[in-house]
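New to this. Please check both lines:
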Amino acid sequence: MTTSYTLPFLLLSFAISPSFAQDDHDAHHHNHGDDEIERMHHDDDSSDMHESTHGKSHPSGMGKPGDPENVSRTVAITMDDTLRFNPDKISVKAGETIRFFLTNNGKLEHEMVLGSMEELTAHAELMRSMPDMQHTEPNMARLRPGQRGGIIWHFDSAGTVDFACLIPGHMEAGMVGRIDVEH
């Protein structure tokens, strides 16, 4: 019987905890304005926070937040109300730090979240059960209609990294993509 109480408690803790850090975190990672997107840099105070909270590899082994000073190249991705990413297949090399320059050309909110398909599917399920949940992590960016933003990510080993829009119904309608990380 303990398990039946543990899962709802964990789900509730995930829903509550990101909201405390969202405002400060948003200022450093997501929903950057047009001028900021070109720089996507951190000032001296924020870089210390960035390293202390996000400098380690992501649990799935897909990489870690990238250093804006070491971007290898920029990949532009558009999102729109056809519920597709363009492009939806991207190739990178292990060791590259990529700046994903995101544009929401739709009339709906969209987001890009990096992860394994297993992680994305589990997170999408959580989003369906708590549609008003706010979440902000360095492996994601959520954009309002017409907004631009970005993610800077370092891919440290070969493999596949998936990405999806986890707004309820979007992933299920096919708003997914894949990054092939080559040696």
User: Anything to note?
Assistant: The beta strands are 64-65, 73-80, 84-86, 89-93, 97-104, 110-115, 140-143, 148-154, 159-164, 176-182.
